[in-house]
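Below is a filled-in request sheet from our internal design queue. Each sheet records the structural input a requester submitted and the sequence that came back. We keep these sheets so that new team members can see what a complete request looks like end to end.

REQUESTER: design group, bay 2
PRIORITY: normal
MODE: inverse folding
CHAIN LENGTH: 211
BACKBONE (tokenized):
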């Protein structure tokens, strides 16, 4: 499967703001956005120009893509599904992105970032309703239960315990329920717009695809 393999910090620098793609590193002085304020390939010598409406729309679309870690064709398919569904297109789009299994793992504080969540799902560390799932794009449904699988691996002793020590490290949204002792989370309901704190202006994304 195709995937983005370049440095995650370059994506934040392209957008011009932190997307928190690398977990705790984004809060440290090592953050790429803090160290290099200008976009990749720009040495900061050019006078900034006022962006066009199309540039603002493209930036917001790319911001959503980078935040949730999906490629262009997959994101276009999400938008097409949202457009064909009942409800407000932009809100349905964010709901589809939020319901990805790798994002749910991140929202439950089982991973420090969505990228890490995607990797752990790919490696088979989680089950949904008792069934092992290694598909990061899997769409969770209400009443689904996401559980850590106790994978025996002599090369990483205490991996689960180390990663989950002190959870939740950040607030868990109201559409999810976390049981820290059992290391499992339940999907209580579908995410509402008020539950999604992505900072993405979906109106601009809808305008981009409506050109």
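RETURNED SEQUENCE:
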């Amino acid at each position: 499967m195709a995937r983005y393999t370049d440095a995650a910090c370059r994506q934040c620098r392209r957008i011009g703001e932190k997307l928190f793609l690398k977990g705790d590193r984004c809060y440290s002085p090592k953050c790429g956005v803090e160290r290099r304020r200008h976009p990749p390939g720009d040495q900061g010598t050019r006078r900034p120009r006022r962006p066009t409406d199309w540039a603002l729309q493209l930036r917001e679309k790319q911001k959503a893509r980078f935040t949730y870690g999906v490629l262009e064709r997959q994101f276009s398919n999400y938008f097409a599904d949202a457009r064909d569904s009942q409800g407000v297109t932009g809100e349905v789009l964010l709901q589809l992105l939020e319901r990805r299994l790798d994002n749910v793992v991140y929202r439950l504080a089982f991973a420090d970032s969505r990228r890490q969540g995607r990797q752990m799902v790919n490696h088979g560390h989680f089950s949904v309703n008792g069934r092992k799932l290694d598909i990061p794009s899997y769409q969770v449904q209400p009443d689904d239960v996401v559980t850590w699988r106790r994978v025996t691996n002599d090369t990483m002793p205490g991996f689960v315990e180390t990663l989950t020590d002190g959870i939740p490290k950040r607030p868990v949204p109201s559409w999810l329920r976390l049981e820290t002792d059992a290391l499992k989370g339940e999907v209580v309901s579908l995410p509402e717009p008020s539950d999604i704190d992505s900072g993405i202006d979906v109106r601009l994304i809808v305008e981009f695809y409506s050109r």
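SHEET NOTES:
- Residues 101-189 form a domain with the Structural Genomics Hypothetical 15.5 Kd Protein In mrcA-pckA Intergenic Region; Chain A fold (CATH 3.10.290.10).
- Strands lie at 126-128, 131-132, 145-148, 176-179, 184-187.
FILED BY: M.R.
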